[in-house]
Amino acid sequence: TRTQDMLQPNQSDGKCRSMTRSSQEFKHKILQEMGDKASITVSVTRSQRKGSALLITNIVFDYEENNRDGAEIDEENMEWLLRTLGYHVVKRRNLSGEETDREVRNFSKLLSEHRDADSTFVVIMSHGERIDNRDAILGVHYHQSRNPNDVYFVDKTFSHLNSGNCPSLIDKPKVILIQACRGGHPGGVEVRDQVPESDSWVHREKDFVCFMSTIPDTASYRNTKTGSHFINYILDVFCEWAHKDEIMELFWKVTNRMATCPGRTENKLLPGLERTYLPKKFYLFPEL
């Protein structure tokens, strides 16, 4: 049974989403135009892809006011997208900060799966906050006064998957998607799209791209009926353009659509790319 038939999600207009198929002719054309393999990540076809993706979604929290209504839609949508792209999805739900850290670390140790993979995705969706100028994912036991330490810092993901701790993913794209607030401010005010430079050596974090739902110090938004705006824009763009665009172009299209979305005033949305270094173009070639 095709993945689309099992999990096919709907667009905001009620129509079913479908992934535009790539073609062997296009893949051959791209490889010829790029000249040599030094400038492109040669992705396998969907049917050959053996890579895994980690999907973590926090929906139900200890304190009911923190529950993320509609987040299950994001989970379904992302699982459909990742499976459609050919990834085996490791799905986890409702984790503490410590459990999130353990799951990401365990995922980095899937040596046999990563060794045969061409790439990987890590997707984390929860509440978020900026703590001491670091992006933090809030665990399900978090409370600002009663349990403020139940967090997972996003930068740990880079440590778990870097060349030293996950050598089986060296020279392979590692795509990190974060759907979470990065502060409480609305996006319609003036914010600085800057974070401190990383102290990590470039070669230890090679082949990473981290796409976050907002820029620093800014809130993210979710519709309880259709899911988060960020995830919906990703699905729309990937379904329409992943058959011909490399991943940085896809993320640029997502950013452009979010930046120019009509009808939003104070609640402006603008995603951010963080700690990104992809020396090669990465094409997903869906549905080959």
TrEMBL record:
Keywords: Hydrolase, Protease, Thiol protease, Zymogen. InterPro entries: Caspase-like_dom_sf, Caspase_cys_AS, Caspase_his_AS, Pept_C14, Pept_C14_caspase, Pept_C14_p10, Pept_C14_p20, Pept_C14A. GO terms for biological process: proteolysis; regulation of inflammatory response. Residues 1-21 are annotated as: Disordered. Coiled coil: none annotated. It comes from Cyprinus carpio. SUPFAM superfamilies: Caspase-like (SSF52129). Belongs to the peptidase C14A family. This is Uncharacterized protein. GO terms for cellular component: AIM2 inflammasome complex; IPAF inflammasome complex; NLRP3 inflammasome complex. Residues 202-286 form the Caspase family p10 domain. One of its GO terms (molecular function) is cysteine-type endopeptidase activity. Residues 49-185 form the Caspase family p20 domain.
